[in-house]
Amino acid sequence: MVRHVGPESELTMTARCMDGGCTWESAPTPQPGTGAVGCAAHTAATGHATFAVRLEYIALVTT
Description:
By secondary structure, the protein is α+β, with helices and mostly antiparallel strands. Helices cover 24% and strands 22% of the residues. The protein contains one helix and two strands. The protein has a two-stranded antiparallel ribbon. It is elongated, with a radius of gyration of 14 Å.
């Protein structure tokens, strides 16, 4: 697969904290680095270090 930049091929990253009853979730972002910074900030503030991370993208497949 080759990533093509354009409006039809968007990437979205989200994350949520997996520590007990914590309800923290990141805002959806097209920049995985920004999402990682959000996780790091949450860890620094709370000590929570486990996250479920989702990367979702639209695949344009040609033959």
